[in-house]
Specification:
Elements (H helix, E strand, L loop, with lengths): L27 H4 L15 H5 L10 E2 L3 H6 L2 E6 L2 E7 L4 H10 L2 E4 L4 E6 L3 H8 L12 E7 L7 E11 L2 E6 L4 H12 L2 H6 L5 E4 L4 E6 L3 H8 L16 E4 L2 E3 L9 E3 L3 E5 L7 E6 L4 H12 L5 E2 L2 H10 L37 H8 L11 E8 L9 E4 L6 E11 L4 E9 L8 E6 L2 E8 L13
Length: about 475
Amino acid sequence: MAALVSSRAFLRSTRSAAGPAKLAIASASAAAALARPAFGCSLASSFRWYASSGSSNDASLRKTALYDLHLQHGGKMVPFGGFHMPVQYSGLSVSASHHFTREKASLFDVGHMVQRHFTGPGAAAFLEALTPSGIEALEVHRSTLSTFLWANSSGGIVDDTVITRLGPQHFYVVTNAACRDKDDAYLAHWLADEKLRDRLPGAVHHEELAGWGLVALQGPLAKDILAECLADGEAADLPNLFFGGSLYARLRLPASTTAPLEELELSSPLLISRAGYTGEDGFEISIPPEETVAVTEALLATAGPERLQFAGLGARDSLRLEAGMCLYGHDLDDTTSPVEAGLSWIIPKARRNDFSFNGAETILEQLRPKSQGGVGVTRRRVGLVVDGAPAREGAEIVEAGESGAVIGRITSGCPSPTLGKNIAMGYIKDGLHKSGTEVGVVVRGKTRRAVVTKMPFVPAKYWKGQ
């Protein structure tokens, strides 16, 4: 996710009514070899990594529909998830872009994410077999964060995902760009699995929205900007569109790229979700390929640069870390279970005695602590505030005091522009995960004082009504 994602911030619901392109998936024979994780996702977790990722002219990299628009706005392009993606723009530093998002609004291109359809009478049961979530109970136009799981003793996460129900037999699923090949093979394996198919009440069909755009409008001014862009009469529903919900609406667009804004036409109905990866109120909009540039330009022109700016991967990373959200390949991976990752809340009560999903025997036992006869976990994901230099991925977490025993590792870390402190996320020995616990973090060979801190570091501002 994202992909994306920790805290209870999920959402990535999208898609319009236009026809999707079918996803070409691996053959059943090739997919059947997937007995366990064969490879992982490689994603960046800090601006320092983005800036040193090498040339963005690699011919193998793909481009989103907004590539040329990024260049026009001074975007610095870097490789990310198999795409050319903007890390920042010439007009704003990463820190300034971060603050602009928190104070006004920013527009993020997330068109590199993989947008998928699952349809048919077996779709809900299929998704419940691969995830621990309550898909059958999900209401239409509601979304949930979830995780695809390996069918082995680790209870490990294949990828984190957001699942949106668009109809009784219609689901929209967003997965991480850098996990595309792994996810495609994983899904192909289970779509071809005869034992699973025999359990389903009917057929399930899998498609990808190839080439579609996905933009995230984030920040306190996002609702006002979107309302101004919506067709007459369609903004009235926004106050009742709460975090985790979605609706279809049309946006007003210039008749051409050179036409004045007064000469408008309407977009096709776009699926607009109240969602995001920043901790701010905001929306994610899925857009057909032929309309992606026009919709994006309409948002920017309607708001004006004093209210809305493009933002890149650098600001997106510091914003999501302040919001306590995980990044797959760093804070989540093939060996980490949802319970270890602090994502037990994605498992509803109705599924906590249901051993039919992948990894259930491990995960459900982990939900019960040892004191109650369960297995529990040996490590937990925590937030940390670190003194001195910022702690980066891989830094050791050690016990405070003379022993200095290693008790965990940092998975993400950066200076927080909002707080003016160094924040980090990592895994620590169970029992030492309580807020306020003092530990050490080894940064550049020196042990720095750190304090386990409740996440999110910055309070979320999701719209849930008055």
